[in-house]
Design brief:
This protein is of the alpha+beta class. The protein starts with a strand and ends in a 17-residue tail after the last helix.
């Protein structure tokens, strides 16, 4: 599930970084707390911030999914150094599973524009049978 947030004034980030979202008015106690770290899936140049998450059945995720548009939430960050190296001559391998692919969404654009001569793209998915 993807969520779009208004970008705070002066907020800058690099593809691969994450933010902490807090819901201080969480109505039901969540054993995982009222804050989640979520990777920014939007491009640094976009007006809105986008985060994506698995929609698990926790009080935090339910409240996030059910909040009315315009609800104010707490945002901190950006955090993290899982970003592309400035040396674009290096070989880069990106490997992820499930929602872990989120940071790669906006890393792929700069990689394709870098002029690298070799590219290998692997796409995988998994499923569970219960």
């Amino acid at each position: 599930m993807a969520f779009y947030l208004d970008r705070p004034a002066g907020f800058t980030f690099t593809a691969g970084q994450f933010i902490d979202l807090s819901l201080p008015n969480l109505s039901t106690s969540d054993p995982e707390g009222q804050t989640r770290s979520l990777t920014l899936a939007s491009a640094p140049s976009e007006q809105k911030l986008m985060v994506a998450t698995r929609l698990r059945n926790t009080p935090f995720k339910r409240m996030l999914a059910e909040m009315p548009l315009g609800t104010t939430i707490d945002l901190e960050g950006p955090f993290g150094q899982f970003t592309l190296p400035s040396d674009d001559s290096r070989t880069i391998a990106l490997l992820a599973g499930g929602i872990g692919i989120t940071p790669f969404f906006r890393m792929l654009g700069p990689l394709t524009r870098s002029g690298a001569k070799e590219r290998t793209c692997l796409h995988g998915f998994s499923f569970w049978e219960c």
